Amino acid sequence: MAVDTTEPEYWLNWKFLLCALWVYSCMALACFLIWKYEGPRSRDSNGDDGGDREEAPPRAGPGVVYLEDCWKPCLEEIHPGWLLAFRVVAFFILASLLLIDIVTDGWSIFLYYTQWTFLLVTLYFGLGSLLSIYGCYQYAYKISGDGSDLIGSGADHGTYIIAPTGESAYGHAIKSSCYSRIHGGQEIAGFWGYLFQIMFQTNAGAVMITDLVFWLILYPFLAHNQYDMNFILIGTHSINVVFLVGDAALNKLHFPWFRIAYFLLWTGLFVNIQWIIHANVSIWWPYPFLDLAFPGAPV
């Protein structure tokens, strides 16, 4: 018999308290790691950031993201256009598959963590395509010889970047929308660059978890019960990891381990939204282990 999740008794018990402690402890740890390591300035340094040091260049800590890493391939011999082509193809294939899934099964698919992650991977390749378009423009501008002095004389002092003459409004928006600065001759990414890096590492954890759980745990059970495995089900649990691994092999993005914190926040956000939905509407749980009536729920 289904339990009414809107009843106060469902939530006011030791099981929910223990589950909440697990979830919010992980989210608090994630927030601490982000506060400590994210961005170009390190919080654990002994320097003084006040007074005459106001114009000092940012320290290259583990959390720094350079703009060129978002669009440059890992090897100089590879033209950025190849990475752009890969990302555009990946975006359209993933978006098409997601659209078919929505049309077939409705918006209720977003009750599942898998579809959350699949949407995030799709958005990652969409944003990556835009950054690669900007990068290809910069690459062509540099090769043409017109952009030999894009940085300017104050680069080593962390000055803001001014778009060179003839640069498109699109390129200027990518650079100047969020305080692009220079460190060690390289341009530090602004908001979109950091968002792209965060999406990359969030996807790395979420995609691996969802696909490994599906193929190693759920698939043997489904195959044993002769469950009908359609194209959409297989595609949403395989093609995303193929494209993500391919992009990771081609791109120049780094993988500092502290950013696993974003994966913890992403998963914690999913659990919290599930709790909010079920506290207001008594509907089925997408995963049985999320049900607090399930014996192993606290684990």
From TrEMBL:
Chain ranges passing through the membrane = 12-35, 82-104, 116-137, 204-223, 229-250, 262-285
Its GO CC terms are: membrane
- Which UniProt keyword terms apply here? Membrane, Transmembrane, Transmembrane helix
Region Disordered, annotated ranges: 41-60
Q: What is this protein called?
A: Uncharacterized protein
* Species of provenance: Setaria viridis (Green bristlegrass)
